[in-house]
Design brief:
Blueprint lengths: L1 H19 L14 H31 L25 E7 L5 H10 L6 E2 L3 E5 L3 H8 L12 E3 L4 H10 L16 H18 L10
Helix pairs in contact: 2-6
GO molecular function: (R)-carnitine transmembrane transporter activity; alanine transmembrane transporter activity; beta-alanine transmembrane transporter activity; branched-chain amino acid:sodium symporter activity; neutral, basic amino acid:sodium:chloride symporter activity
Protein name: Amino acid transporter transmembrane domain-containing protein
Keywords: Disulfide bond, Membrane, Signal, Transmembrane, Transmembrane helix, Transport
C-alpha cells in the first residue's frame, strides 16, 4: 500500500504544489472535477495539524521541564511516584500464590504490608528478593509453601514512566466523567505556545512556512 499508493500520491501532491505554486484547492483548476480532492486535503491537514500539535505540546513541556539541574523523572522520591511499584532498575521478584487462602485475609495482609510488594492481585503478590525474609516472617511459614521457589527478573514502573503518566498527562484511573479531573494547566500552556509558534510561522502565508 505504501509503495503502490502512498508514495505515488505523495509525489503527485508535492509535484503539483511545486509546479503550480498554488494551494490544494486552487491547484485543481486544470481539472475542476478533482476540486473535491483539494478540499479533502485541506480537511485532512486540519485534523492532522490539531492532533500533531498536541505532540508538539508534549515536546514543549518536556523542554521546559528539562531546564533544571535535577531532572524530575530521574528519581522515585516525588509525590506522583508509586512507592510500591516505582523502580530505577530491574529487581528480582517471585509470586506468592494465595489460592486456597482466605481472600479477605490475604488482601488485608497485602494492604497492611504493601511496602513489601511490587504488585498484587486477588490471589497473588509479587515480592522482591530483599523483602522475602520480612514477608515469610509475617506469614509465619516458608515462602515456598506459597509457590515462591524461584525468583525472576521483573521491573516495576520506571521513574520516567510514572512522571509521564502521573504528572505530565495526569491520566485518570477510568473513563467515567467523575474521574476526568480538571484542565491540565501545564499542558494547556504548552499547547498554547505550540499554536502561537504555528500562527507566527504561517501569518505571512504559505510561502513563509518552508523557511521555519
Amino acid at each position: 500500500m505504501l509503495v503502490f499508493a502512498g508514495l505515488p500520491i505523495f509525489f503527485m501532491e508535492v509535484a503539483l504544489g511545486q509546479f503550480s505554486s498554488l494551494g490544494p484547492t486552487a491547484v485543481w483548476k486544470f481539472n475542476p472535477i478533482f476540486k473535491g480532492v483539494g478540499i479533502c486535503m485541506v480537511v485532512l491537514s486540519a485534523f492532522v495539524g490539531i492532533y500533531y500539535n498536541v505532540i508538539i505540546a508534549y515536546t514543549v513541556f518536556y523542554f521546559f521541564s528539562s531546564l533544571t539541574s535535577n531532572l524530575p523523572w530521574e528519581s522515585c522520591n516525588n509525590w506522583w511516584n508509586n512507592q510500591t511499584t516505582c523502580s530505577l532498575s530491574f529487581q528480582q521478584v517471585c509470586n506468592l500464590n494465595f489460592t486456597g487462602v482466605d481472600t479477605t485475609a490475604a488482601n488485608s495482609y497485602i494492604s497492611s504490608n504493601s511496602k513489601y510488594f511490587v504488585g498484587s492481585g486477588p490471589v497473588y503478590a509479587e515480592v522482591p528478593r530483599h523483602h522475602v525474609t520480612n514477608v515469610t516472617a509475617l506469614l509465619g511459614s516458608n515462602a515456598t509453601s506459597f509457590g515462591c521457589p524461584t525468583f525472576f527478573a521483573q521491573r516495576g514502573t520506571s521513574a520516567s514512566e510514572e512522571y509521564c503518566s502521573n504528572y505530565a498527562l495526569r491520566l485518570a484511573d477510568d473513563i467515567y466523567p467523575s474521574s476526568n479531573g480538571q484542565v491540565n494547566s501545564h499542558l494547556a500552556l504548552s499547547l498554547m505556545v505550540a499554536w502561537i509558534v504555528v500562527f507566527y510561522s504561517l501569518i505571512k502565508g504559505i510561502k513563509s512556512s518552508g523557511k521555519v
